[in-house]
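Hi R.,

As promised, here are both runs. First protein below:
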Amino acid sequence: MKILAIETATAWQSVALLDDDRVLGMHEQEAGGAHGSLLLPAIDQLLSKSHLRLSELDGLCCSAGPGSFTGIRVGLATCLGLRAASGLSLALVPTLEAMARTVQGESRPLCPVLMSRRDEVYWALFRWMGEGQWKRLVSEQVGTPTALAQSLPDQTVMIGLGWSAMEKEIRSALPESVTVTVGPDHAFRPSAIQVARMGMEQIQQGVIAGSVVAPLYVQRAEAEIQYERSGGLSPVARRRKRVEMKVAARLARRPRSKNTRNR
């Protein structure tokens, strides 16, 4: 199964192509707030290097949040545009769970943390149960570092850019009975490769996005609220329309891949 995955939940975006367990390619870059101008070229470059067309894939996966409001909107809208142009199935993958799943074999509670706004953090708690099974101990939350610290069980393993940014504040608010350890470096930043692996499982199980989708914000973006009040299209809907037109134009002019011609 060939899968294209998009991860834009932080300032660092990544795009990956997987064929079952084999990584065909990955493109990652610092996007800052420029996800909108960088994402489609990155996808186009990755497909070209892999000698694949969008129509030759089996599914799409997108990191659904929580995380950067702008990044998540851009990633989801782009995937919706690609889905509309190709008819591929789309899986929405919770960002924090994808981060936790990169730490295989850890029996202690795992707490992925990402920055929110106003010095708050997104977090959740997961536990690896063995044999590829995971348990969600606490669903996605948003709050102060103090509130997070007061919610942690003993021996929690901390990962994520939010932990890096707020480690001092979280540690200072921990109850005396609670100790935490720091997880491996590779788990600190969301990865499109893990998004692809989780999304592939969902597509194989028939867990795919329907016609109405929404990012996992945890707290709603002010921009979304204002657009609803005004009766206009949301940022996701507007970008989805733009992506549909761009993808349709690219598909129309791109030559067929070598793999396809040789069949």
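And here is the second one, sequence first, then its structure tokens:
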Amino acid sequence: MSDADIARRALALLDLTDLADDATTEGARALCGRAVSGPVPVAAVCLWPRFVATARAELGDGPVRIATVVNFPDGGTPIAPVLRETEEALEAGADEIDLVLPWRAVLAGQTTAATAMVRNVKMRCGDRLLKVILETGEYPDLDKVRAASELAIGAGADFIKTSTGKTARSASIPAARVMLGVIGMTARPVGLKPSGGIRTLADAKSYLDLADAIMGSDWATPATFRFGASGLHAALVAAIGGSAPDAAPQGNY
């Protein structure tokens, strides 16, 4: 497969993201414009809850879905405000919710409250996608990544996602391999979303190769696999156009 073909494949799996602390309404509009103007539409845009209504107005009922984040980025908000924020985002037009797992509580063995949060957010999502962010870069070992993956899926996650992109360590191939192993042992369909630090065509290819090797070459579709990234979009568009596919864009996401 050529670089351009790989880039087209990855672009269709992208959650084009703007979760900058200084994000603006104009920036949200621009993000939506980029989402639909490239050689391949992206899978979704992912932005702060306050911009969901703007994204809905820009994208309408087109193919690009609207994702937003709750309990983000620290994962320490009490359940009641998280549920309120989820309900408000869904009412504003969100198609997908990316929920940060209360990962510090999980690492401390306090799994009951974390399970309840995932389960209750999923109840509010109904048939809309729930992606649960594990924040794998903060875990001391891969056994903890495996346990958190099992917890999130057991509580109803439609996707498990590596990272917020707001910590020093984000997505990694070892963590993604463990997460895919848990997904492969799950009776129902569950997706994977690597996010944070994925900036180049080579980065994207490494995760696609991993998914192909573990799950099969036809598994990774927008229904089962997403990239969470902001700068990756420019690298993929450049690769499709035949220029500098691996020039790393600036930024943390």
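A quick note on the second one: Strands lie at 14-18, 44-47, 65-70, 96-100, 129-133, 159-161, 191-193, 227-229. Let me know what you think.

Best,
J.
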